């Protein structure tokens, strides 16, 4: 099938790579404009652009989607299908309706739950037992189109955002690969979403970062795992501010939430609000490097 692909981060690369591997004619790739990174503010290509260029695929990076420029490109490319995966732009209806088979999206949740920008993060933050990927028709409303296929997977009790992100990227690529032939042969089944079950996964912000030790140990652990790699959970321990990257369950305790109970090879043990403690096992002091808590304590012992 002749396909126009739209995506930006590494999550989307898995789907684009699968389209190429399946032998589809990828007539073009839309991705976000290059952005300055690091101290030198050098413009760096998106992961999707890097892969597309490696495959000699034509790349387009329109600054706007509603001024007619993007539509003209789409019409010139004449795709039979548009596939979107984490593009990061809202597409106007005239673009969505251009291809013969319409426009579909690879969305990292079991719709209608977790529509929006950060579905993987919020599934972890809310301690969901499972998540998945939905292949859906794109509609004018955000992530509200009919669903074509759902692939589910459990969330591991210690799984963090980077790990789940990678697994869902591959799961989405597989589901996409299985969906496209059903569009071509007319066997695709459209499943309308149940609006009464809809939940929203808004963009993350640094306001979510500070740890409140009055919450349960499990809720704090989910916060730590779900806010990686940005904005990261943060806490002040013994007068020093840290980004917290990993925690492990502790033991029952009676001390006030936020009390440091121990600091050693197991990490920094902190009392939580549900009468349990939590070990901080990986952290990064402000201005320092990410390391194990045990390594940090060798040079910065905490007196109890």
Can you describe what's shown?
The chain has 304 residues and is of the alpha/beta class. The chain folds into 2 domains: 196 residues, Formyl transferase, N-terminal domain (Rossmann fold), CATH 3.40.50; 94 residues, Roll (Methionyl-tRNA Fmet Formyltransferase, Chain A, domain 2), CATH 3.10.25.10. The chain has 8 helices and 15 strands. Strands 5-2-1-6-7-8-9 form a 7-stranded mixed β-sheet. Strands 10, 11, 12, 13, 14 and 15 form a 6-stranded antiparallel β-sheet that branches. The radius of gyration is 22 Å and the shape is elongated.
Structural class: alpha/beta
- Count of extended strands: 15
**Mind telling me the CATH superfamily name of the largest domain?**
Formyl transferase, N-terminal domain
- Give the low-pLDDT segments: none
Order of helices and strands: EHEEEHEHEHEHEEHHEEEEEEH
Taken from the alpha-carbon principal axes, the silhouette is elongated
Round the mean pLDDT to the nearest integer and report it. Answer: 96
CATH architecture of the largest domain: 3-Layer(aba) Sandwich
Give the tags:
single chain; 304 residues; alpha/beta; Rossmann fold; Methionyl-tRNA Fmet Formyltransferase, Chain A, domain 2; 2 domains; 7-stranded mixed sheet; 6-stranded antiparallel sheet; 8 helices; 15 strands
What would you say about this model in short?
With 304 residues, this protein is an alpha/beta fold. The protein contains eight helices and 15 strands. It is 27% helix and 29% strand.
